[in-house]
Amino acid sequence: MAQQPSSITKKLEAKVAVVTGGASGIGEATARLFANHGAKVVIADIQDEKGRTVAESIGSKNCSYVRCDVADEEQVQRMIDSTIQTYGQLDVMFSNAGVFSKSNQLVIDLDFSELDQLFAINVRGMTACVKHAAKAMVERGVKGSIVCTASIAATTAGEVSTDYYMSKHAVLGLMRCASKQLGPHGIRVNAVSPFVVATPLACNYFHMDVEELEKIHQPQTSLKEAILKVDHVADAALFLASDDSTFITGHNLVVDGGCTV
After folding, report:
1. Which of 12, 97, 246, 247 is exposed most, by the fewest CB atoms within 10 A?
2. What is one Pfam family matched by this protein (predicted)?
C-alpha cells in the first residue's frame, strides 16, 4: 500500500482528474495515487464491476466511476460533461485506455478489420479524450495537464503487432500537435511510455502470469534486478500531471529501465 503523503506534499490538492482505463493495471494504480495526492478522481472504463470496486475502495468523497467506451466519442463527451457537472472543473486528463493487437499482425498480411478495431481505441479513443478534455479546459480557462499513455512501441519497431506499433506512434503525433496548439492556453500535454508491465491486460496478451512476464522482460533493461511495476508508471504520470512539471510539455517520458537506450 502506497504511503499517504502529508498535506504539505500532496501534489494534486483541489484538482479534478479523469483516468481512462482506470479499473485495473496502470490506470488503477494512477487513480489511487492521484486520490492520495488530493485529487477528486473519475475512473472511466468499461469494466463496470472492477471500476466500481476500485472507486469504492478509494472512497466516494474522492473517487467515482463512469462507464465510458473511449471508442465512442459521444460517450467521451458525456463523461467529460458529467465530470464538470459533478465537480465543477477538470484539471487533469490521464488518457490511458488502450488495447494490444488481437494477433501478431505482419505488414504483408495485415487484417484491416483488426487494425480498425485497435485504432478505434488506441488512436480515435485517445484523440477523443484529448479533444474533449482540452475543450473543457479551454472553455473554463483552466491551465490543465493532459497525459497520454503511449509505449516504448511508440519509438521502436516491431517484428509483429504492426497495428499496435502504428497506433502508439500515432499517440506521440497527437501529443506533440496538441502540446503545440494548447500551449497558448496554458495547457500542457505529455506522454508516458512504459516498457512491458505485468498488468492483467499484458498477462492475458502474453498468456503468462505476473512472475513469468517479469522474469522474461527484466533482463532487457539495464537496471540490475529492477522490475517495472504499475506504481513506477503511476509516479511518472503524477509528475507530468502535477506542478512539478510546470515547464514540461510535448515530452515523451520513457519509463523502461534503459531498455531502448
Report:
1. 247
2. adh_short_C2
